[in-house]
Design brief:
Layout (H helix, E strand, L loop, with lengths): L2 H10 L11 E10 L4 E2 L6 E2 L3 H6 L14 E5 L2 E5 L1 E3 L8 E13 L6 H13 L6 E5 L5 H11 E2 L5 E4 L12 H14 L5 E5 L2 E4 L4 E2 L8 E2 L7 E3 L4 E3 L14 E2 L8 E5 L6 H8 L6 E6 L12 H11 L3 E6 L11 H8 L3 E2 L5 H13 L5 H8 L22 H17 L2 H9 L16 H6 L4 H9 L14 H7 L3 H9 L9 H7 L4 H7 L2
Parallel strand pairs: 1-7, 1-8, 8-10, 10-11, 18-19, 19-20, 20-21
Antiparallel strand pairs: 2-3, 4-5, 6-7, 9-17, 11-12, 12-15, 13-14, 15-16
Helix pairs in contact: 3-4, 4-9, 6-7, 9-10, 11-12, 14-16, 15-16
This protein binds asparagine.
Length: 528
């Protein structure tokens, strides 16, 4: 079967596709607090409730006046109806429909901790199937920490989670909140970027690469060691697809929330620091890990007779994990100079080009993972788990800027090989670093995974999933690969897609149920 046939099938079976008349993406906005929702008070700016009604409903760019039905949100297992709003149609011919869920206590982000992160992760987890993407509104002070923490806590994430906030409240006349929120909604609603991202001042960053660089400028964040994933200009949204991280395990989305921030610490080295100061921190009750912020490419003073290095080496022997992160904004920790080499020999892990926020979050995540040993934590700290660091051995590969014709040719070639069931050829094409093509779609909106979902070779489907193909992208008829596989009666394909976290979209449920008279068990297995 070739790719054209696959398209015909998806159109023939659904004379009236559910989503064609008014395509819309559904987004759950989670409000945790921060300046974005604040109002003036006699005590200065304080977080205020009722964000949807006060700040969004009156603005035409956030409300097309269509008064859509309520949407359901699940919190602690209880389903409640919430008012939803819809944006006007975008240049990509879609509406974004959204609801706002507000935390019971709205926080200034300087007060957030692991409980707050777990709360966000739980809301995303419980509502994962009902929404296409998630936007989290958060104060800017600790935003980079929350982004880093969530990037690890959300495992095998298949949908966009975008965090944003603002430097000035939405209710102030001159603010950055309007652009930051609208940009986040538009990107989350139109582009399948399955990462925890931070959107600010027209740029989308990988969340665990971002850091706050200004207390007052609208350009409050930067991602010094990794280019932005997307940028918004007056003309278009440019997504750097080749940079997007994709989950590559045949596993469904899950969360890991049992973590504590109290068993890790962060310490900045300065000229003249006394070994006793570091020793005191390393002997804190219950401490399991330390992020050591060092000079330049990872250097620290040795101390008289190497006393400082000895303090560190003793702590490592007691089982404390120590990671070396540079105080510089850009560059990486390498044992280039003697002092850095001493640290490495003492058992301090070179943290490559991670931010301190990412190192801290990663360490507490790994230490809390069930079944982890100190050795495994040490090992994983220098491996990229969510694109948080550049592995030293990885070869840098940059795509030429002008890729369009080749890129389309490659996509077509890939489509044909998949529909012919030619595993070897698909493997060869993906080996030449073309796996970023996997989430691209042809004229009918079908991605390579849509084609493989009805293709003759289930091993190709597995291969694409292992290379990070998204199970959530819908074609122009609103169909997911899972729907196509069930519709084609392919049990093995359905099982594999389900194992990878695929689920039917709420917009295709009604048709799925009506088709379920045939292949009842299969449609049941697909979730209809
Ligand atoms: N203090 C605020 C917060 O982080 C700062 C902001 O959001 N701009 O909650």
């Amino acid at each position: 079967m070739d790719s054209t046939n696959t398209t015909e099938i998806s159109i023939k079976v659904d004379q009236v596709p559910d989503n064609v008349a008014a395509p819309e993406s559904r987004i759950l906005v989670v409000m945790t607090g921060g300046t974005i929702c604040m109002r003036r008070s006699p005590d200065g700016f304080v977080p205020a409730r009722g964000f949807l009604e006060s700040s969004l409903a009156p603005r035409p760019s956030f409300n097309d006046g269509s008064k859509p039905d309520d949407l359901q949100i699940i919190v602690d297992g209880v389903e409640t109806s919430y008012h939803s709003l819809r944006t006007p149609i975008s240049t990509y011919e879609k509406h974004v429909r959204y609801v706002v869920y507000e935390f019971a206590e709205l926080l200034d982000s300087s007060s957030i901790n692991a409980n707050g992160w777990a709360q966000i992760a739980e809301v995303v987890y419980q509502n994962y199937r009902a929404f296409d993407a998630f936007v989290v509104l958060h104060g800017t002070d600790s935003l980079a920490y929350t982004c880093s923490a969530l990037s690890f806590m959300l495992q095998n994430l298949g949908k966009p989670v975008i965090l944003t906030g603002s430097q000035a409240p939405m209710l102030e006349l001159q603010n950055d909140a309007t652009d930051n929120l609208l940009g986040s909604l538009i990107i989350a609603g139109h582009f399948m970027i399955p990462e925890v991202c931070l959107f600010f001042n027209h740029k989308l960053y990988r969340g665990n690469r971002a850091t706050k660089i200004s207390a007052s400028e609208f350009a409050a964040f930067a991602s010094p060691n990794f280019p932005p994933l997307a940028t918004i200009s007056s003309l278009k949204i440019h997504v750097s697809w080749e940079l997007i991280y994709r989950p590559t395990h045949i596993k469904a989305f899950n969360i890991q929330t049992n973590r504590a921030t109290s068993d890790v610490a962060c310490l900045r080295i300065f000229p003249g620091i006394k070994p006793e100061m570091i020793d005191a921190v390393l002997k804190l009750d219950g401490l399991k890990g330390l992020v050591l912020e060092t000079f330049g490419s990872g250097n620290a003073p040795g101390g008289a007779d190497g006393a400082l290095v000895k303090v560190l080496a003793d702590a490592v022997k007691r089982g404390i994990v120590i990671v070396n992160i540079t105080q510089c904004l850009t560059g990486t920790v390498t044992p280039l100079y003697e002092p850095a080499m001493h640290l490495k020999r003492a058992g301090v892990i070179p943290g490559a080009d991670m931010t301190s926020e990412a190192a801290l979050a990663k360490m507490s995540y790994l230490l809390a993972l069930p079944g982890m040993t100190t050795e495994k934590v040490i090992n994983q700290m220098s491996v990229s788990l969510r694109g948080e660091l550049t592995e030293q051995t990885a070869t840098a590969f940059a795509h030429p800027r002008d890729v369009l014709p080749t890129h389309l040719a490659n996509l077509t070639q890939l489509g044909y090989s998949i529909s012919k069931g030619d595993h070897e050829e698909v493997e060869r094409l993906l080996k030449s670093d073309l796996s970023w093509l996997l989430n691209e779609s042809d004229y009918s909106g079908n991605t390579p995974l849509h084609i493989a979902a009805t293709g003759p070779n289930v091993d190709i489907l597995r291969l694409l999933l292992q290379q990070g193909a998204s199970v959530h992208i819908r074609n122009k008829s609103g169909r997911t690969p899972l729907f196509l596989a069930a519709n084609a009666g392919l049990t093995e394909h359905v099982t594999l897609l389900k194992q990878s976290g695929a689920h039917l979209h709420s917009g295709e449920m009604a048709t799925a149920k009506s088709h379920a008279r045939k292949h009842l068990d299969l449609w049941r297995a697909a979730g209809a």
